[in-house]
Amino acid sequence: MTLSTCCETETAATDAGGIPARLTGGVRAGYRRLARWNRLRHERHQLGELSDDLLRDIGLTRREALREARRPFWDVTGGRR
Questions:
Q1: H-state helical runs in 1-81
Q2: Most C-beta atoms within 10 A of its C-beta, which of 18, 38, 55, 59?
Q3: Around Cβ 47, how many Cβ atoms within 10 Å?
Q4: Which pLDDT score is estimated for 12?
């Protein structure tokens, strides 16, 4: 087996979430957590960039959107502060 064959096999062996199949247990859970944190960071940044008209359409004020956008990516509780 060559290095390129090995890499192609590993790339193809992923689950529905794109996680390499060879990862298991805690490593797999950690990978999912990092992926979720990255999505949250991106979504919160986008929320902070929305116009007042778009915020009104989704039922948020500028103040609420900025408060959510400032939350750290690891804060996934969903509770309001």
A1: 3-12, 25-49, 52-57, 62-70
A2: 55
A3: 19
A4: 53
